[in-house]
Structure formats: structure tokens, C-alpha cells
């Protein structure tokens, strides 16, 4: 157990629907990062939050949004889902705003859009 | 964005032997961070080793070591005395030194390592 908790582990939904992925960072970590892993695109950075505020944005689609709550857990919202959104979504956390020592990853949420 | 290239989609090694996984990257910075992550079939991403670019000494973690060639922008991972549990996808990652580019890690496409008995 890495200390980073992601729920649910698996999610199957239909095109056009909206889902929410949840992440609880490791105790003491203030930064949360979201990544999408697909076979063709590899690991793509989506967005980072630090202590409740957005810190950096990557290749995140406008249909996707995220937030970090006062208790530091984070949610990634995916809407108007398309078949191409099927992927493994990782959350990772680090102590500070930077990631000099790397991240601690959760075990991921496998999203399947049918 | 900085590009990270892993030119070996698949590698194979026999148990107890040594294998080297290649990684090159593109950056104009002089100070940055490099990482190797392991993703076994469980799909958990596990940090294997990290290197700070300003340090000339190659990082070592038990059976894992790196060959960091800054001028060549090369960061290879050497696994000694390979074990069956080393079988996994290995990802090389780069992190920019300052917040202007965000703190995201840029990952390569990965190398799948097979360990044979």
C-alpha cells in the first residue's frame, strides 16, 4: 500500500456520461497530480493541485476538471465521455509543491467507456 | 515540453544476469531531475531511483544503478542480478527544475522487461 488511495478501482460507463474519480493523498502530502495512461499516449500529465489551489496544467481536455478540497483529497471529473477517454487514471502525491523526490502513486482507476 | 525517449519497447534478461535500459531526453536546462519508475502487472507505479542533474555521481539503490551522461542527455538504468520480480514496465521521467514549467514529470513510453528463469 503506497498510502495514496484511489477510488473506484474500476469504472465502466457509457459514452456521453459523467464520472468522478477520487484520490486521497499520502498523509502529509500537500500536492496531488493526475495522470492519464493509455496505450497510444503513454503517461500524460493532466493537472496538479497544491494545498487546494491549481498549480500546473497539462494536456487536460476542457471536458475534464479537477479540484482539491480542504482535507486535501482531490476529485477528477470527466464529462461527455468518449470512447477515447478509456484509460488508466493515476493520482500521485508529493510532500511539497515540487516533486524533487518523485511522486507516490495510487493504484489507479481503470475507466472503460462503452 | 521536454521529450523523453525510451528506444527499447521490450527487453529480455535471464535471472541473475544484468540488463541496461536506455533513456534519452531533451532539455536546455542545466539543473533538473530524472527518475526511473517501475510498473509491474499490478499496475502500481513504483519509484526505483532518482538522479539530480547537478550531481555528477551516479545514483545507486541496491541492485539498481544509473549511468547518467549529462552531455549526451542519457540516463540509463542498470539492473544487476535480475530477479523474476523485476519483470515490469519501466518508465524514465524528467522533471523541470522550476515551477514555470509546472512540477509535472514527463514520462517516456516505457520499456517492457521480461525476466526468464
Short structural summary:
The complex is a heterodimer of chains A (114) and B (117). With 114 residues, chain A is mainly beta.
How does this model look, in words?
The complex is a heterodimer of chains A (114) and B (117). With 114 residues, chain A is mainly beta. Chain A is 0% helix and 53% strand. Chain A is built from no helices and eleven strands. In chain A, strand 5 (42-50) and strand 6 form a beta hairpin. Chain A is globular. The N and C termini of chain A lie far apart (30 Å). In chain B, the strands form three sheets. In chain B, strands 2, 5, 6, 10, 11 and 12 form a six-stranded mixed beta sheet that branches. A four-stranded antiparallel beta sheet of chain B has the order 3-9-8-7, with no helix packed on it. A two-stranded antiparallel sheet of chain B has the order 1-4. By secondary structure, chain B is mainly beta. Chain B is globular, with a radius of gyration of 14 Å. The A-B interface holds A 2, 31, 33, 42-43, 45, 48, 55-58, 88, 90, 92, 94, 97-105, 107-108 and B 33, 35, 37, 42-47, 50, 52, 91, 95, 99, 101-110.
Structural key phrases:
heterodimer, A: mainly beta, 7-stranded mixed beta sheet, 4-stranded antiparallel beta sheet, B: mainly beta, 12 strands
Main sheet record of chain A: 7 strands, mixed
Radius of gyration of chain A: 13 Å
What is the number of E strands of chain B?
A: 12
Distance between the termini of chain A: 30 Å
| Basic shape of chain B | globular
Largest sheet of chain B: 6 strands, mixed
Unreliable stretches of chain B (pLDDT < 50, length at least 5) are: none
Order of helices and strands of chain B: EEEEEEEEEEEE
Poorly predicted regions of chain A are none
Strand content of chain A: over 45%
Mean pLDDT of chain A: 92
Count of distinct strands of chain A? 11
Biggest contact: A-B, 26 and 24 residues
Order of helices and strands of chain A: EEEEEEEEEEE
Count of alpha and pi helical runs of chain A: 0
Class by SSE composition of chain B:
mainly beta
